[in-house]
Write a structure and sequence with these properties.
Layout (H helix, E strand, L loop, with lengths): L1 H12 L1 H8 L4 H17 L11 H21 L5 H27 L4 H13 L5 H12 L15 H23 L2 H50 L6 E2 L2 E2 L13 H6 L6 H6 L21 H7 L3 H9 L8
Antiparallel strand pairs: 1-2
Length: 322
C-alpha cells in the first residue's frame, strides 16, 4: 500500500510529462484543479501508510519536474496558443506543488549537490532567491511582521500573494547583500532564467517562451496559495521587545493523507518549523497545533472565496491574529 502512495506522489509530480507523451498536455491542469481536491475530500480523515523516501528518488523526481517544464516548452511550438497556456499552467501547477515541496526539502539538505539541484530547479521558474531567503529569512522570522509569509485574518489570497512576492524578493536581496553573494543568490538566477527563455525562444519560438512564462506565473500562484494556508493569521507574540519562541501554535498542520503523499510530507509543517533539521521522512503530525480542516488542494480552492475561507479558519478554534 505504501508503494501505491509513492506511485500517486510521483504521478502527480510528473503529470505534465505523462500527458505530453499521451498527447493531452492540457489534462494536468484539469487534474490539479479538480481531481486532486476531489481525492482529498473523498479520503477525509482516513490515514493510510506513508512511504519512506530514498533521497536518490527525491533527486530524480525533482530533476524530472524541472526537465519536464523545459521539454514541454520546447514542444509548445506544435500547440495552438490556447493549448500552450493550458499546458504551461499544468506544468506550473506541478512545479508549485510537488516541485516546490522537493526543492524546499533538498534546499534544507546538508549535501552541497542537493542544494545545488534545488537552486537549479528554482532558477528554471525564476525563484532562485528562494533557497537562501527561506532558510535565513522565513525560518528565523516566521510569525513576525518582517517575515515574507506574514498574514492577517483580513488578508485575501490576492493581497497576500502580491505582498509576499515583493517581500520575499526584497528580503532575499537584503540577506544576500549582507552575506556578499548577491550575484549567486539573486541576480545570477534571474539572469539564467532570462537566458533559458531566450534559448527556448530561439529553439521553439514565442510559444516556448509563452509556456515558460505561464509556468512561472502559475508556480508563483500555487506556492503563494500553499504558504498562505500554512501560515494564515498565526503570529508570534512580542514580549519585552523579543518575539516568543517558535511553537506549535505558529503554523498550520495538515493530516490529509492525499496531501501528505503529494507534498512529500511537507504538510507536516509544524514539526518542520520546530525541528528544521529533520528530513521529510522524520516529520510527524503535531496534534496540539492548529489543524487545517481539509487538504491543501481543497483549502487552496476555498482561499479564492475570502469570506468562506475566513469563516472556515475561524471555526477551527485557532488563535488567529487580526
Amino acid at each position: 500500500m505504501a508503494f501505491g502512495g509513492a506511485a500517486l506522489a510521483i504521478f502527480f509530480a510528473w503529470l505534465p510529462a505523462v500527458f505530453l507523451v499521451l498527447g493531452h498536455p492540457a489534462w494536468p491542469l484539469f487534474i490539479g484543479l479538480f481531481v486532486l481536491p476531489l481525492l482529498e475530500w473523498m479520503v477525509g480523515d482516513y490515514q493510510g501508510p506513508i512511504p519512506y523516501w530514498n533521497f536518490w528518488a527525491l533527486r530524480v523526481i525533482l530533476a524530472g519536474i524541472a526537465l519536464q517544464g523545459l521539454v514541454g516548452a520546447y514542444f509548445a511550438q506544435h500547440y495552438a496558443w490556447w493549448l500552450v497556456i493550458l499546458a504551461g499552467a499544468g506544468s506550473g501547477y506541478a512545479a508549485g506543488g510537488s516541485g516546490n515541496a522537493l526543492g524546499h526539502e533538498l534546499g534544507h539538505s546538508r549535501a552541497l549537490w542537493d542544494r545545488r539541484l534545488a537552486k537549479w530547479f528554482f532558477t528554471t521558474v525564476c525563484f532562485g532567491h528562494y533557497t537562501q531567503e527561506h532558510g535565513a529569512g522565513h525560518h528565523v522570522l516566521v510569525g513576525t511582521p518582517k517575515d515574507s509569509l506574514y498574514s492577517y485574518l483580513s488578508d485575501t489570497l490576492s493581497s497576500f500573494s502580491h505582498r509576499n512576492m515583493i517581500k520575499q524578493l526584497r528580503l532575499g536581496i537584503e540577506i544576500a547583500t549582507v552575506r556578499g553573494n548577491l550575484w549567486s543568490e539573486v541576480y545570477g538566477p534571474i539572469f539564467f532564467y532570462v537566458l533559458i527563455n531566450l534559448v527556448i525562444g530561439y529553439l521553439a519560438g514565442w510559444k516556448g517562451m509563452l509556456f515558460l512564462t505561464v509556468q512561472t506565473v502559475v508556480m508563483y500562484l500555487v506556492d503563494a496559495s500553499i504558504t498562505f494556508i500554512q501560515h494564515f493569521a498565526l503570529h508570534r507574540k512580542e514580549i519585552d521587545g523579543r518575539f516568543e519562541r517558535i511553537g506549535p501554535q505558529h503554523t498550520w498542520d495538515c493530516r490529509n493523507w492525499v496531501t501528505t503523499l503529494v507534498s512529500f510530507n511537507n504538510c507536516r509543517h509544524v514539526d518542520h518549523h520546530i525541528n528544521p533539521g529533520k528530513d521529510l521522512n522524520g516529520l510527524e503530525p503535531v496534534p496540539e497545533a492548529p489543524q487545517l480542516p481539509y487538504g491543501y488542494a481543497v483549502m487552496g480552492t476555498l482561499a479564492n472565496f475570502p469570506s468562506v475561507f475566513r469563516r472556515i479558519m475561524e471555526n477551527t478554534g485557532a488563535q488567529l491574529a487580526r
